[in-house]
Amino acid sequence: MRYLLLLYSAPGAGPSSDSPEAAAEMQEWFAYTQKLADSGALLGGEPLHPVESATTVRIRDGETLHTDGPFAETKETLGGFYMIDVETLDEALDWAAKIPNVGYGSVEVRPIMEMPAQA
Amino acid sequence: MTQSIVAQVFAREWPKLVAILVRELGDIELAEDSAQQAFTEAAATWGPENTPTTPGAWLLTTARRRAVDSIRRSATMRDKMSHLVPDPDADPPSSHQLMDDQLALIFGCCHPALGPEAQVAVTLREVCGLSTRQIGAAFFTTEATMAKRLVRAKTKIRQAGIPFTVPDRTRLAERLDAVLAVIYLIFTEGHAAADGPALIRGDLCDEARWLADLVADLLPDQAEAWGLSALINLTDSRRSARVDGGGRPVLLADQDRSLWDRTLIAEGRRRLRHADTCDDVGPYQLQAAIALVHASADSDRATHWTTIVGLYDRLLQYEPTAVVALNRAAAVSQAWGPQAGLDALDALTSGDGAAGRNLESYRYYHAARADMLRRLDRHSEAAVAYARALELTTNEGERHFLRSRIDLCR
Predict the structure, then answer these.
(1) Are the beta carbons of B161 and A1 separated by less than 8 Å?
(2) CA nearest to B156 within chain A
(3) DSSP readout, A12-23?
(4) Domain spanning A2-111 has what CATH number?
(5) Cα-atom radius of gyration of chain B, to the nearest Å?
(6) CA B57 from chain center: how many Å?
(7) Which one of B57, B92, B127 terminates a domain?
(8) Predicted confidence (pLDDT) at residue A95 exceeds the cutoff of 90
(9) What pLDDT, in 10s, does the model give residues B270-297?
(10) pLDDT on residue B187
(11) Which CATH number goes with the domain that contains B50?
(12) Do A93 and B113 touch (CB under 8 A)?
């Protein structure tokens, strides 16, 4: 099954961007991504720009509304994602638990809806 | 006549049938529906003269046929593709495979991706075969509410891809903890209902004991699984002594020990001995050991209370909770007198806050404290503590008991 791992954390929760800790964490991200790729489970994944860059689109009563900001006001915001293909949810949860910032952020594991091939 | 044959077979065969079908079909809902249809057919066609010689095999073949029918009928390509198609006439699985299937079903139903309430509901439905109405009644909700909870849980199982497999060695310990927690939750829910009129709901106790025994038997080298089944057997042995004719609770000290179920005590002792051979101590075994000390005593007075205090000391290392510390203090009061017990209680609440504050809102803390004060002849203080416990109690039987204690102190 395919799963999307959505990486949430609170802005400012991790090491500050020019610190040695941030450099060390960056190495962890590279290593993690490499491990995921080597396992054959990695389908894709990207880091995202900070939440200030988000625009939320809604249509209500036929009118299109654009809101500056994320979908919901929460402390933790979406920072990136991995798309993986593994046999079971357990494997997806294991990969989620190894994500470098899972210690101060959270990872939402979402199964991807498999659409039938069009005949 | 037919009804009772089918009911007997149901209790024995349902858990096996669903477990086999989940593996063969790869879908919990289809497995449940097919098993249900097979039993409905059995109820309609079996009679005293024509009950199949191997009812289990008959039910499996019938359920597989119904499953094949459903898959053929399913409207969408997606539904058709997501199911494995069984061969109705294939042999039933080997006993080894069957054990694996039963474990897999339990581990799937108790998967941590489901919330605790959902785990309990799905386990009672799929593993124990309780109806939605029965589960709803056990948890004081309507059948409709319980049906919704089950549908939501099964949708999550399907969409999230919750696996029905026995976890590998690296995950087994953690996942087994979740399974044992669900079983213990079912037992405590049956054993001491926090709300409502009935103090003990025997059905849930029976199901929990059956489940605990099954999981232990299927995992012979898992000490805590055996510890939990020992604990449940030993605790449940006191069931008929725990409430009086009016449905009111009877304290351990006042129970008629001739009502204790000797068969369950022997079974609990045997299971705890087996746990000992696994060489891996844990909280369920320690609690079972405490229950066994009680079960081995002819009277409350003859109970080896210092041994119990020692066991609580060890239990505190695994579960440093206010509740365990409270039970330890109660044992101290039995071993070394009410003043020693009261000192132990005061040490808990005079501590740095959180544990003490938790105890303040815990009815058994006030009841235990009241009991010690009463034994020290400090009656007016005891009455105040009993009254505080009464404020925090919703169970009718317990309320009646506490009121009678307040009267005793006046």
Answers:
(1) yes
(2) A111
(3) T-S--TTSHHHH
(4) 3.30.70.1060
(5) 24
(6) 30
(7) B92
(8) yes
(9) 999 999 999 899 999 999 999 999 999 9
(10) 92
(11) 1.10.1740
(12) yes
